Amino acid sequence: xxxxxxxxxxxxxxxxxxxxxxxxxxxxxxxxxxxxxxxxxxxxxxxxxxxxxxxxxxxxxxxxxxxxxxxxxxxxxxxxxxxxxxxxxxxxxxxxxxxxxxxxxxxxxxxxxxxxxxxxxxxxxxxxxxxxxxxxxxxxxxxxxxxxxxxxxxxxxxxxxxxxxxxxxxxxxxxxxxxxxxxxxxxxxxxxxxxxxxxxxxxxxxxxxxxxxxxxxxxxxxxxxxxxxxxxxxxxxxxxxxxxxxxxxxxxxxxxxxxxxxxxxxxxxxxxxxxxxxxxxxxxxxxxxxxxxxxxxxxxxxxxxxxxxxxxxxxxxxxxxxxxxxxxxx
Length: 330
Known about the structure:
Layout: H1 4-12, E1 19-23, H2 28-37, E2 40-45, H3 48-52, E3 60-61, E4 70-76, H4 81-94, E5 95-106, H5 115-119, E6 122-130, E7 133-141, E8 152-157, E9 161-165, H6 177-185, E10 194-198, H7 204-211, E11 216-221, H8 224-233, E12 240-244, E13 255-261, E14 265-266, E15 269-270, H9 273-285, E16 286-297, H10 303-309, E17 312-316, E18 322-328
Parallel strand pairs: 1-2, 1-4, 2-3, 4-5, 10-11, 10-13, 11-12, 13-16
Antiparallel strand pairs: 5-7, 6-7, 8-9, 14-15, 16-18, 17-18
Helix pairs in contact: 1-2
């Protein structure tokens, strides 16, 4: 069954579409129906897990699509507003003269507020609403430049280095309080140790490990935006590798230390199940007597999960609202 957003996008297609770009639609049923309606469909997702949930469909993990001209772009509202603006500008800059952008999302996530942005990018903009959702149909793109598509220097972490990132990556504007709390407790020497940064984001924690002598640092994230950012952040460290991975499911080697800022959301939905998977994966990937260092929002129910998997846990002082822990695999 299609969501209301999926219905709006499918109905907007009309009968004349030959090829289209489906960008972060994240709805397998919609993608199957689109495939049956057009001659050529290119499906792009930032998040690896969305591709894996594609029900047999073939897509590509990319932060931005390939540099070419498109006839029709179907785009779903991003959870990050600035990321959404860049996606819209990219689409306008890569549409053919008679191309169209169809952009849809839920009202509660702010889709109505994009009218001004869209009218600065297109000569013709119209919209239709249904069931607390809205679709913008945009034609005749104006001459606009392509927005930045590569990670840029965003902020400095004292004693560690420059963090390169981009909209759509967790805490892309500044160091978040949780990571800052974990950094306060992390050791300063990782000589010859194998370290895993699980859910690395822009690579702040991985950079700390690499800078402080780790023999090997592996950083993983399911987001192409995060992987690109972390690779740029860690570009000067040959002892660091950044991989696209769903919670390290495809990793087999063991590590001496796993570090993680446990996630609060999976996509746009708040959840604690993803954080539990991080803890379970950490236990599997740690060597005997290996250490897990984590930070998470204290309202999340991870204490029981940590106690289930780890024999020794130190609960460390942290700012109000956060929990920092060191857990040892027995």
